[in-house]
Every structure is written in structure tokens, then in C-alpha cells.
Amino acid sequence: MKRILVLATGGTISSTPQKNGLAPGMTIEQLSSFFDRADNEIEFIPTMDKDSTNIQPEDWLTIGRQILEHPKFDAYIITHGTDTMAYTASALSYLLNDLKKTIVLTGSQIPLSFEHTDAKRNIADALTVASKADFPGVYLVFDGQVIAGTRAVKVKSHSFDAFASINFPVVAKVENNQLEKKYNPTFNPAAFKTKFSLDTNVYLLKAFPGLSANFFDFVLKEKAGLIVESFGNGGLPDIGRDLVSGVKSLSNANLPVIITTQIMNEGQDISLYEVGQKVAAAGGITSGDMNTEAIVAKLMWAMAQTKDLSQIKKIIQTPIAHDLDRLLT
Length: 329
Known about the structure:
By secondary structure, the protein is α/β, with parallel strands linked by helices.
């Protein structure tokens, strides 16, 4: 028998029909009635009651603190909305990177209160993982899949199989309360003492033909970190609307510019093409096969650890919590 703490944060799983559409409205007593307590000791904390669209980095810290303040539990389940669940899973993977316990995030596409809901299965699967998993870390459990928190991406808006594991194997599968491990994840926390903190002064820019370079001036004025979803393997235009010069201006000001790709699968090889080599030479920090959700959380976390650009680059490019496997620079 394991001691499991459930943190309820709202989301579709606890939503009910209201005047202006679905919104969180289920009480913690109602939510807890769907958890089978026959084989485990389970406690519940109503942490917040939000549609995950409204979940902010400050909420990631609140959830993380709740876990740290309750160390007596063997495992943790977080019920959460699906729209930003992957961001929360990534953030907790960094904030709690050295915690040797299993943390599970789950939710649903259809509320618990509806007849044809996926929530009941996801709750049962989350309990199976929390009680039986022998691998610590943060994981997203949805539609029978156990996905590393830094590798989960929501890829469908309505279907039950809403999440995919990007550029990393599915860790395990759950069927009929049985856990079948598919991949043996190693425990790889940060190799340095970390602060439980985030710097949210971060912007995300998706490159497109015709994008003005003026946005870089704004980021420079804000003294912020920037993530750029580039074309293909890391290329940005340097003719006409010159975005490469924008990367250089930020880098020269000791501001991190993380270069990822708009292509979801297989990561990037920034040195493959001349356009990518120019971005790297301008100071763009390549992020390999990491997904955007993980990069956003990791950059906020890295910038809270240090303001030294070389150290931020080192943190971004160091694998933590399974977030990075293929880095070509």
C-alpha cells in the first residue's frame, strides 16, 4: 500500500456545464469519489480551480511547493486541464528534478460528470502508475500512455489520445490496471545545486515569411530571453527582413536566444545549411530535439539559476529529466 497525494487544479476533468460553457466546478469531495482507495492510502488537496488556459508559471511554483511540503507521500497525482498540461509537466520536471518520487499529471478530454468520459480511465491509470511505477520523475498519463513530462505535447483537440511523446519513447502503457514498462528511464537530475525559482521574462516567436525584425528590438528593450521557432533545421532569413542580425543584437547584449524548429519530430541540425550556420554564428543557442513546451519552462528555470549567458547555454544544452537526446551544434 502506498501513500498517494492528489492535487486538484481544475481543468476539463472537473468541469461542469455553466452559463458560458464548460468551466471547473466539481468539488474536491465529488472528484475524490472517482478514486479507488481499496489498495492505497489517498489524500486530496484542492490546490486551485482553473481552466488550464489560466494556469501561469506562478501556479507551477504553487503545485511544486505543495509536493515539497508533503514529503511523507510515496507518489503524487495532479489533475489538470489538457491545454497547458505539457507546460506544467515540463516545469515540474525542472523544479523538482532531484525528487526521487513519481509524479503523475492526468486529466481528460470530456468531464467526469459526462456519461462518455475518458476521465475515469485516466484516473484509474494514474493510480496504477503512482502505485506501481518503479521510476521516479514527472510523467503525463493519458489514454493508457505514460509519457516523460518533458516530452509530452498535446496533438489533438478532441480525441482521447490527445498527447504524444515527441522524440522519445513512451515510457510505459497501462491496460486493465496493469503497468507494462516499454522503456527504462534513467534518473538524470541536474548536476548542480538548483534554485526552486522561475524567471518569466521570456518570449516565444514563431518565424514566418514576412516577419519584421522589429520584434527583436522590443525583446532587447525588455532585456528578456527569447525562443525562436525557426524554419527547418534552424534557419532564419538574413536577406530582406534580416532576423539573423536580431539574434546577434540580443546575444551581444548577453540575452539568450534559443533556436528551436517548427518541425515537431526529429529535432534540428543547425549546422546542416548555411542559413542555420549563420544563426549559430550570431549567437543562437540550438536546442536539439527538445519540444517547445519544455524549452519555455527550461529557459524560465535556467534564467532563474543564473544570468550568465554561457551558463544558461550550458543548462539548456544539458539533458535533464529526459528532455534532450539529440543535440547537433
